[in-house]
Design brief:
This protein is mainly alpha-helical. It has one domain. Helix content is 84%, strand content 0%. The protein is built from 2 helices and no strands. Helix 1 crosses helix 2. The longest helix has 53 residues. The chain is extended and about 55 Å long.
Length: 103
């Protein structure tokens, strides 16, 4: 025995709270990474400097996404996802062809 509390003495909600926290982390971390990558790209493309430039880029991405979703609706979001999927699949085939010719 470890000398700690017994399993039956633990509150019921402790497991649920951990599961909720874990789910929240799994949802938020990829979103943060995508937002940072997009903001970094905009920051470097536009030529903004420093940490304030990164924050301006993040706000620009969020404003653009909100505007696009509010005024374009779900249909616009679906068409954008479709277009991005086609571009990614096409890029994958281009990379496969380029990799095949160099080896």
């Amino acid at each position: 025995m470890s000398g700690g509390r017994h399993e039956q003495d633990k509150p019921k909600y402790e497991g649920r709270a951990r599961a909720r926290a874990r789910a929240l982390i799994y949802v938020l971390f990829p979103f943060q990474a995508d937002l940072y990558a997009g903001a970094l790209f905009i920051k470097l493309s536009v030529g903004l400097e420093g940490l304030s430039g990164l924050y301006i880029s993040i706000l620009l991405i969020l404003a653009l996404a909100a505007f696009f979703t509010i005024f374009g609706g779900l249909s616009a979001v679906i068409w954008t996802d479709f277009t991005q999927a086609i571009l990614m699949i096409g890029g994958a085939f281009v990379l496969m062809g380029a990799g095949r010719t160099t080896t």
